[in-house]
Specification:
Number of strands: 13
Distance between the termini: 52 Å
Shape: elongated
Structural class: alpha/beta
Protein name: GTP cyclohydrolase 1 type 2 homolog
Family: Belongs to the GTP cyclohydrolase I type 2/NIF3 family.
Pfam families: DUF34_NIF3
Largest sheet: 6 strands, mixed
Radius of gyration: 20 Å
GO molecular function, one term: hydrolase activity
CATH architecture of the largest domain: 3-Layer(aba) Sandwich
Strand content: 15-25%
Helix content: 25-40%
Low-confidence stretches: none
Organism: Pelagirhabdus alkalitolerans
CATH topology of the largest domain: Udp-n-acetylmuramoylalanyl-d-glutamate--2,6- Diaminopimelate Ligase, Chain: A, domain 1
Length: about 260
């Protein structure tokens, strides 16, 4: 019996209390269509769409939005790049589903849990929270954490604030765009965090707080690893989970580098 697009999306959304304005919808396609192969990605770039089609997959599951805005509204419908991307999807008959809210609402959050697993810190978890996972009972320097992150996540470079020889015993991990002060500062205070690791956030918020805190003698540091870099492990975990649920359906993860380069 063939697997339908609806079978996969129903599985992904089962028992998840999604927000009213969820972005987790079938963006293109027909939920009753049979699935030939599934491709999974973090960012549905034009290149990723082409690779999905070349793989012979007719179903793409992406974490982030197709059209450069979180809610994927029609505000950029006039743009020729948006139109070209839409044309490629429609002409190919590709089904595209966005999985953003549900994967974060799984228990535990699959995105956060996956990066903790990648960093091999599962045994050091103190608490799992909706916006972060708290790590404790470790004795690490900022420099050693930087090297560990680069090695385990295969990242060429990361940005940080603080002192390289600073000791870290309590660490907060905030994936994706959870690096804003409203997310980080209450937990820095509550758990006396020595180090915040996040994907990204406004640079005038948490980084500037850490700079001032460090200047006046507080033991605070920050590592910014990049939005994509913090969430890709979760999409790879998703691939493995879907392979177990749909063992007869070929499933591929399509990797891609970040769009930002360093000079």
């Amino acid at each position: 019996m063939s697997v339908l697009v609806k079978d996969v999306t129903d599985y992904l959304l089962a028992d998840i209390d999604l927000p009213i304005d969820t972005v987790d919808t079938l963006q293109f396609g027909d939920s009753s269509q049979s699935v030939s192969k599934i491709a999974i990605c973090f960012m549905p770039t034009y290149e990723v769409l082409e690779e999905t089609i070349n793989l012979g997959a007719n179903f793409l599951i992406s974490h982030e939005a197709l059209f450069y805005h979180h809610t994927d509204t029609k505000i950029f419908a006039y743009d020729p790049i948006v139109q070209t991307k839409q044309d490629l999807i429609k002409e190919s008959g590709l089904n595209v589903f966005r999985l953003h809210d549900a994967i974060h609402k799984m228990e535990p959050d699959m995105i956060t849990q996956s990066i903790v697993q990648s960093l091999e810190w599962e045994e050091a978890i103190i608490e799992r929270l909706p916006v972060a996972t708290i790590i404790g009972g470790v004795d690490l320097s900022v420099e050693s954490v930087l090297k560990h992150i680069k090695k385990k996540l295969n990242i060429d470079s990361v940005r940080y604030s603080g002192h390289l020889d600073q000791n870290c015993q309590r660490i907060g991990i905030f994936v994706g765009y959870r690096g804003g002060s409203q997310q980080t500062l209450p937990l820095i205070s509550k758990y006396d965090l020595d180090l915040v690791i996040y994907g990204e956030g406004p640079e005038w918020e948490t980084p500037e707080y850490v700079r001032d805190a460090s200047y006046v003698g507080e033991n605070r540091a920050l590592i910014s690893i990049g939005h994509m870099e913090s969430e890709v492990p979760g999409m790879i975990t998703l691939k493995e989970r879907l392979k177990k649920q749909f063992p007869h359906t070929p499933i591929h993860f399509i990797d891609h580098p970040t769009c930002l380069k360093t000079f």
